[in-house]
Amino acid sequence: MKVLVIGGGGREHALVWALSKSKLVEEIHVAPGNAGMRGVAFLHSVHSEGTEEILDLATQIDPDLIIIGPEAPLVKGAADSLRNNGFTVFGPGKTGAALEGSKAFAKQFMSRWNIPTAPFHLCTTLEEGMEALKKRHAPYVIKADGLAAGKGAFVVDNLEDAQSIISDLLVKKTLGAAGEKIIVEDYMPGLELTVLCVSDGKEYRILPPSQDHKRVYDNDKGPNTGGMGAYCPVPWAGSSLMERIEKEVISPTFEGLKKEGIPYCGVLYFGLMIDSHYKPRVVEYNVRFGDPEAQVILPVLNVDFAQLAMSASTGALSTLPPIVANGWAVDVVISSEGYPGPYKKGLPISGLHEAAALRNVLLFHSGTSLNQGGETVTNGGRVLNIVGLGLSLEDALARSYEGVKYIHFEGAHYRRDIAAKARI
Question: What are the structural domains of the chain?
Fold first, then answer.
């Protein structure tokens, strides 16, 4: 097969790596890709959110399969545009992508189908936001309705900060159109868990569970980020919990989509909070592979990823066996100093070849580029994913941090407690 991957981050590098390991794949193209994908795929300088540009590129390449990595093109309807022009696409259409594109749509969908989530208020004015806060106590949870590049969710411990955030979103428009509507919801204590499902529109397959680390500093301190690391599978997510998640969350979600006439082909991400009684509740839906969850899930799958994606895209998931984890993976993200706030770009990175040469260590680039001298330099907030693989969690964890030791650039930051919550 010839495959086109849309996107340029760590998730897409992991997708490209997984496709490169498939005997079914002969040629891989990526738009726009990043410095780490050179030599594995053909890179095209096409913006991943430009629906018409993506269609033009697909027409030139004529791939057998197109995999859309990021959420933004999905929410804009890129999958619909491509399918309408005869391409086979892994990724939901615009109506299904609204589960991530609009927090309000997602919460109302959950309400309609009795899918457990936090009680919430939808607010469009400052007055409504302040009234919603009065009905709650700290910690306060506020979310922008639309896509905000990982910067639209706030969890704060005092009322003044919560009021200020609501004012910033609804009055000052700090997130623009994404924050014109907001969700104010109850805080959900518990342990975070990510469960991804692949769907072909008729049925689904559950992928091994993983756990992300959203806060920038150790011990879950500091602001939320796009994710500072992950591991897969999750030891405490046993069969009884997974059966409960499927019964109470996953199955009702896909049934709801079918009954509302929303076709869904691709990945549906269930961001869950598991309380002390092992009751799952939905924090959020995403309509694509998580980042950094993809980086730890794809390397341990017991099935050929290209076959999985093509089967989902052609309505043939029933031909595949149950999907389980074949080993363990841990991802430690190395970020730029200052992330998720302002940060420098263009800083030279050393140690890439040494880290990549280690046994059972994978490097997935998130925010890198090549400078005029051909050096790999930083080009984003999250720069690199150092993924360790092993037959045990401890082995994978050790290999990941061994790889981290080799990577150096000015201000490099990473968490030292990835997978600390694996044993409870």
Answer: 2-99 (3.40.50.20), 119-185 (3.30.1490.20), 191-404 (3.30.470.20)
